[in-house]
Amino acid sequence: MGNPLPPRIIRSGPYVPTTSRAGDEANVIFRKSNLITRSRNSRFYEECYSGEGNLNEDLAAVQITGTLDLTLDSATVTGNGTLFTSELHLGQRVCAIPVDNSNSWLLVVRRIIDDTHMIVWQAPDASAAAVNGWRMPRLYAVNDQRGVSLTGNVLKLDKGSFLGVGSGTFFLNGQPLPGVSLVLTRHPTLALYDATTGTYTVFPLGMDTPVAPTLMAVGGGTKGMQAGNYSIVLTPNRLETDGYNNPSPRADVTISTGDMIAITFPAADSANGQNAWGIWVTTFADTLGADLNYLNGPWHFLIQVSEADVAAGGRTLNYEWLDAEVETNEIVSFNNDEPTDAEFVEEMNAIPVYISCQGQGNVVHPEATSPGPFIVPAKPNNIEAAPLDLAFSSSPPETILGAVMAQGRIYLLTINKLQIAQSTPSDAVPIIIRPFWHDGFANPDQLVFVNGTLYGFPVAGPSRSVGDGDEIVAERDWAEDVAEIVLGDRESTAGWNPGQVLVGYDPFDDLVAFIHSADHRNTAGFWTTRILGFGISQNFWVTDILISSDTQDSIVSGVATIGDRMELLIGGRIG
Amino acid sequence: MANPSVGTFRFDDGNGNEWFLASPPSNSGVGERDKVIKSFRATGKMTAPQYAIYGYGPSDSIDTADIEAGTNSSTGLKSFTTTAGVAQTPRIQINVPNCMQHLVRVSGVWDGTGVKDRVDQILYEVATQGVRR
What we know:
The complex is a heterodimer. By secondary structure, chain A is mainly beta. Helix content of chain A is about 5%, strand content about 45%. A 6-stranded antiparallel barrel of chain A has the order 8-9-12-11-10-13. In chain A, strands 16, 17, 20, 21 and 22 form a 5-stranded antiparallel sheet that branches. In chain A, strands 24, 25, 26, 28 and 29 form a 5-stranded antiparallel sheet that branches. The two termini of chain A are about 55 Å apart. Chain B is globular, with a radius of gyration of 18 Å. Chain B contains 1 helix and 9 strands, in the order ββββαβββββ. Chains A and B meet through strand 1, strand 2, strand 3, strand 4 and strand 5 of A and strand 1, strand 2, strand 3, helix 1 and strand 8 of B.
């Protein structure tokens, strides 16, 4: 009979799976699953994680063209009849499944070489020929709703319209838009809301430059326009955005005092959604002198007129104006170019900013310009125009994989760094971009901003900013508690694959979730996902969750905070 | 064969889950002698709970995969009484000898009904055993 020792009392506390086995460690939790630490200040207890609530929004994965050949332990995937350069995007998740449905692999695109070769983040653990590839969607918040598309994202504009770039059909809370469905492409696309029908019409951004109008002097004016020479240009406008593209060639007319000017409008570019015209005019003062200055503008904004009114007027409408009515109005510019290709769109100061532009293209699609190292803001007063003379490169110029908008800045996830784009008071250099963290990313879903701190999963592992998110230093010591799981032994025992990690924030449980998709297969042969949660209130790791099913893969392909909850896209092979 | 599908899910809004936790290994402050685990009890609201004691002597590998899976423990998985609310369980007398180091693993399966399962405290009694080895 030995001597009694003090009983061992185990209470909840920090989750520290990375600790010595010396036998004299502090009272921490060594291993756990599906429990979340609650409370604070040493009054902790463990509560069951209830699982994932199904929102019953089934979204189909979309099959790629052609098939894939996989080789054991090789990260190079070969396609047969595939269109990698046009169908796939960096960081995109593809679930590869043989025709007999006997297995599956998560392939995260790391580099696209050409239409039939790509490199993925995790080499498959078996060889397989002619397997099907299914593109899995990603998730993002659109106000208080769930936005889903294969890649890219969508913003909700004023008046209920949407602006998006990426790929695949856009789903809002599991449903395509009513009316015309919004299908994203690298070229920015608008879905315009009609409040009378509750439906949408969809157009690519960019309206054709109109031909010059026909002008004629007509009598009957009431404002007393002075005799002289006047010039007019027209812009193709859109009522829903009040935006426009490049103006027509000028048309000139000579009038007598008291005349009006009859404008005969050319055909509108209805195919691209033009439903209005901008009329830009010269002033009487510009007609003075013998050097015909009026021929050179400037053209001041007079009025926006709807295409419906133009059509109702038989395409000819009369206008008159006085100098004081227009001379302080906006002057037309000639660089109202449509936006270039992009991978994402964010808003800074209510201005759309197109992200990951001006890439190198490829042999198959030399015209394609995303992904790339540039961001291109739209004009502040005209969101339809995003000329390349406003483009800014990441610095150093690295391909941008994703973006997070926070604190008036855009955090740009690049292959080797986290960079910051922020606006400046300078008209000459309205945006500057600088490096922030010197550690790169693997996919767009690896950074969140919580209460002034950035949390991310660059390729080196969990990191967060010091202080208010405006520091160059990325802090890593806080993540050492889970390094044994995330990093393995940094040699023979594998940790998490960076390409398969997503990061999200759950306000409900007040934790930052580091999500490792396709962590391992369960006993039924289906992929599971492991989530490590860092408690914001507790300032330590509070949970270790396993998402698993015996009937289908549980591969997380998307995460977003919608209102006060974190929501996930989960799917894969079905048994 | 069904085409693969993807669904939308809300985190921590499901209908129950399996759970477990394990303490780090302890030598009870007497690193050079074996111990015997004499009893076990827990406080919490636990559905279909089980415990397992892992004892380790010199040269025994502390295998975290076993701890995570609940396998190869000194006791095997032992069931104890479900608690309807947060309550202290009765003391369960056990006898697990030869533990130079020891840890406990407690698990359960919340079925999604009523209040969520929780674990507030685990307590087990330890006594020294034998001589230094």
